[in-house]
Structures are given as structure tokens and as C-alpha cells.
């Protein structure tokens, strides 16, 4: 904002200076300079008077244009109170203490693993779209489908994300050898198709209707659907390609060995490549060493501008950076807590997180914790950057997300599986609290703490139709 304001003042000064020279010779040259100065001033003022005109540019350069319309604090009274909060030692101890044993433990192996048949029915290909977390779920489901069909799975192909425009392949994100070896007792997996099927590529299926492609797999299809519709194709052609393949396997009414297999893929077989793990460890060490293990993940906010009070009242809006800061302060986190921020670009620039930084000045990100050389293998690759954030989230002392979504759900599942503290914001409660402009700080603090006593990582059993990857008990866990 300061840069823009300075530029605005410079143009005003130049325009005034040229006005003083209007009576001197060479007035044509002066009039031309006036027009140039006026044009410059008009360009600078247009974003103020016609903001819609600049929306495409704002989307293309969020960190630049966000400075024009950075939001002012909406909850000034609560913010001022949060800066004065006094947190008791007992509250601090309770907040940072690990979760007690809840009587559940990881349990991904069935008692009797069916032996791998000597002969495969054919090859299964899947093409996975979406972001990293959606692709992870698709990989788990693809392994399960291969098991159901007694087929050989080709390493899944990751589609180019239309938003991220990331070309990263499976092998650039996940350790392929570990993936194959961890599952070799249950499913046959190959890196490449035999030469007789080399024609079966994404480009081949993009150019026309092909007999070996399944386009009609329903969302949450049953095991029987695959046996009835895909197995005959395998038996006829030796290969079947399924695209799209996202949420294409049901969460219910599957054999226990298939459920256990999905758990095994998600929690054991899918491991990031070494350089992602090394960068993640560097970030974790940089966070933990200065602060004696006080690390908290701060989740992404996709959009900080909401005006629909009804949606907020229902808890359906993500928290703004200001609101996540107020939530953390009310829960008892002090200003010496170190926060890890996934991405400034998501927020739209430094100006949009200034209130959050005021409450928590020890806020870090990838650039503040690592060198350019350490980041060189993941820079400008959205999937790899997301994988690094995923790794840090897996190992943070506390995880909290400002916006429930795929990343939030994936972390809920993983951290429940590992019995790690994960605070689930009570969005419905917070929506009502932030709409109450008359609420005083002590009342807000107490309401937040009362509303989150049972939302800090307590095991929740999966209900019908819920994701096995978000709620791992009972399918992936058993009672100790």
C-alpha cells in the first residue's frame, strides 16, 4: 500500500510542477507532459474507482494487487483484548500436552492376508485429477480395485491440475520402490506396461472413444460393480483404463481385507521422495529448535472476503487470517508460539496477514526457514510444495486448519491414526461469535475454550458413507 501511495503522490507533484510552466515557451511540450502525467494518475486511480476492471490482474498477481484492497481489522475490540490476554501456566500446560492414550492403535493388517494369485487378470490404469490430497485417496482406491479384480496395477498417472498447472508425476512425489515393496505381498504393481500394451496412453484415450477405457465408473461404486463391468474388459483385452478416477470406490460394504489394504496404502505405502522428506525435516528442525517444540500448523484460507452473514452463521465460511489469530489467542496460544504458514500467495500478500502477524510475530514459512538451495527441487512445483506442507503437518505438535477441506480431512485421519493433537475449529460457534459485535474479550475467550474442549483430537468412529481416510477407526485401527 505504501508503494502505491508514494507513486500516487509523485504523480500529483509532477502534475502541479508542470502547471507552473504553462505560461513559458514550448507550451506544446508542456501540454504533452501534462497529458502523460494525467494518464499516469488515471491509471493509478482506476483500481480505486473501477476495481472490477482490475480483477483479472488481481487474480494473476495477488500479492501485488492485494495491497490496494487489504482488509482492515473487523474485530478491533477482540484484537485489542487478545493482545492483552493473560494465559495461566496450567492452561499452557494443558494446551501443549500430548493426547492421552485413547484405547485405539494402528491396525492395518488383516489376520489372514489372502495370498497373491499366480496369474493376474490383466492391467489396470487410472488417471487421477485434483490436488495432492485427492490424488492420494485415488491411489489408495486404485490399489484396492486392483486387489478386487486380481489385476496388476500400473503406477497411477497424475493429471495436470488445471489450477496449479503442475506436471509432477507420481515418481516425483512418492517413493515408487517403497510403494511397490510395501504392497508386494497383496497386489502386483508395475512401473511400466509391457511393450504389447505400450499404445495404452493418456493421449490415446484423449483422441477418441476406446474399447479399453471406462468412463462411466459411478462415484462410490461397489466392489460388485467392478467385478461386473471391468473384469470382463480385462478378460477380453488384458487391460482397462479408468478415467476419471476420483471417489470411485465406496467406503462401505467392502471386505475387511480390502479396507485394511486401503489403510495400509494411505498410512504405510505412500511415502514422499527423499528430498521432500529432507526439506520437511529442515523446516521442522528450524521450527522446533528455537522454541523448545512449540510448533503449530496454521492452515490455509482460500478467501478472506465474505459478506454473507447467513453462511458465516452456519459455520460454512473459512476463517480469515485475523479470525484464526483471535481463535488461537483465545485458546491460549501466546505470542511466543511459532506458526508455520503454508503460503502467503493463498492469503493474497503480506498485507492480508498483518493482523495475524501482530498477534503471532514468530510466524514462519518455507523461505524463512530454509535456503534457496534447499528449496531448489520443489520451487515452482505446486504438488511438491504441497507435499512439503503435508509432511510438516504430519509431524507438527498441533495441527489446526482455518478452512475444512481435503488437506484438513487428510490430516484429521493421519493424526487420529497416530494419536496426535489436532484442533478442529467449531465453525458454527465461531461464525456466531464473530457476528456478535458487542461481545467482550473475556466472554469470547471463555466461549471459545468451552466450545473446543472435545475438539482436540479425540477419536471419532467412522459413520456410514464417511471417508475411511478421514475417520480411520475402526477400519484402520483396533482397540488396544
From TrEMBL:
GO biological process terms held by the UniProt record: fucose metabolic process
Keyword Electron transport part of the UniProt annotation: no
What keywords does the record list, in alphabetical order?
Carbohydrate metabolism, Fucose metabolism, Glycoprotein, Glycosyltransferase, Membrane, Transferase, Transmembrane, Transmembrane helix
Major subcellular location class = membrane
Q: Which GO terms describe its molecular function?
A: glycosyltransferase activity
Membrane association type: Single-pass membrane protein
Q: Name one GO cellular component term.
A: membrane
Keyword Ribonucleoprotein (UniProt): no
Protein name from the UniProt record:
O-fucosyltransferase family protein
* Organism the protein comes from: Actinidia chinensis var. chinensis (Chinese soft-hair kiwi)
Provide the organism lineage as a comma list.
Eukaryota, Viridiplantae, Streptophyta, Embryophyta, Tracheophyta
Amino acid at each position: 500500500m505504501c508503494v502505491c501511495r508514494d507513486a500516487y503522490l509523485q504523480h500529483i507533484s509532477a502534475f502541479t510542477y508542470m502547471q507552473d510552466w504553462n505560461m513559458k515557451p514550448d507550451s506544446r511540450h508542456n501540454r504533452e507532459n501534462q497529458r502523460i502525467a494525467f494518464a499516469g494518475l488515471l491509471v493509478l486511480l482506476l483500481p480505486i474507482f473501477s476495481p472490477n476492471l482490475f480483477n483479472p490482474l488481481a487474480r494473476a498477481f495477488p500479492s501485488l494487487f492485494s495491497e490496494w484492497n487489504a482488509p482492515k481489522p473487523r474485530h478491533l475490540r477482540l484484537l485489542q483484548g487478545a493482545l492483552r490476554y493473560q494465559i495461566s501456566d496450567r492452561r499452557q500446560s494443558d494446551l501443549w500436552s500430548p493426547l492421552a492414550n485413547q484405547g485405539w492403535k494402528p491396525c492395518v493388517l488383516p489376520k489372514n492376508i489372502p495370498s497373491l494369485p499366480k496369474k493376474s487378470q490383466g492391467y489396470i490404469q487410472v488417471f487421477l485429477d485434483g490436488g495432492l490430497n485427492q490424488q492420494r485417496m485415488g491411489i489408495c482406491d486404485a490399489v484396492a480395485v486392483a486387489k478386487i479384480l486380481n489385476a496388476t496395477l500400473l503406477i497411477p498417472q497424475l493429471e495436470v491440475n488445471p489450477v496449479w498447472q503442475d506436471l509432477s508425476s507420481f515418481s516425483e512425489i512418492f517413493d515408487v520402490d517403497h510403494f511397490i515393496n510395501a504392497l508386494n505381498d497383496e497386489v502386483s504393481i508395475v512401473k511400466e506396461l509391457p511393450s504389447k500394451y505400450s499404445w495404452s496412453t493418456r493421449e490415446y484415450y484423449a483422441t477418441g472413444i476406446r474399447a479399453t477405457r471406462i468412463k462411466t465408473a459411478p462415484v462410490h461404486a461397489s466392489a460388485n460393480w467392478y467385478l461386473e463391468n471391468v473384469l470382463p474388459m480385462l478378460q477380453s483385452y488384458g487391460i482397462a483404463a479408468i478415467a476419471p478416477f476420483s471417489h470411485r470406490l465406496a467406503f462401505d460394504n467392502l471386505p475387511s481385507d480390502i479396507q485394511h489394504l486401503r489403510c495400509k496404502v494411505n498410512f504405510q505405502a505412500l511415502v514422499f521422495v527423499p528430498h521432500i522428506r529432507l526439506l520437511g525435516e529442515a523446516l521442522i528442525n528450524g521450527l522446533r529448535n528455537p522454541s523448545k517444540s512449540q510448533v503449530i500448523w496454521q492452515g490455509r484460507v482460500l478467501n478472506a472476503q465474505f459478506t454473507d452473514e447467513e453462511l458465516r452463521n452456519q459455520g460454512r465460511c473459512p476463517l480469515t487470517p485475523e479470525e484464526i489469530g483471535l481463535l488461537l489467542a483465545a485458546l491460549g496460544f501466546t505470542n511466543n508460539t511459532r506458526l508455520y504458514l503454508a503460503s502467503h500467495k493463498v492469503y493474497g500478500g503480506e498485507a492480508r496477514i498483518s493482523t495475524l502477524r501482530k498477534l503471532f510475530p514468530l510466524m514462519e514459512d518455507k523461505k524463512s526457514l530454509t535456503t534457496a538451495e534447499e528449496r531448489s527441487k520443489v520451487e515452482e512445483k505446486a504438488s511438491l510444495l504441497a507435499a512439503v506442507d503435508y509432511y510438516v503437518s504430519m509431524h507438527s505438535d498441533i495441527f489446526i486448519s482455518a478452512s475444512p477441506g481435503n488437506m484438513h480431512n487428510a490430516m484429521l485421519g493421519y493424526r487420529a491414526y497416530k494419536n496426535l493433537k489436532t484442533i478442529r475449529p467449531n465453525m458454527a460457534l465461531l461464525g456466531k461469535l464473530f457476528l456478535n459485535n458487542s461481545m467482550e474479550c473475556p466472554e469470547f475467550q471463555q466461549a471459545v475454550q468451552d466450545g473446543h474442549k472435545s475438539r482436540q483430537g479425540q477419536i471419532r468412529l467412522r459413520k456410514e458413507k464417511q471417508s475411511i481416510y478421514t475417520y480411520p477407526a475402526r477400519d484402520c485401527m483396533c482397540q488396544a
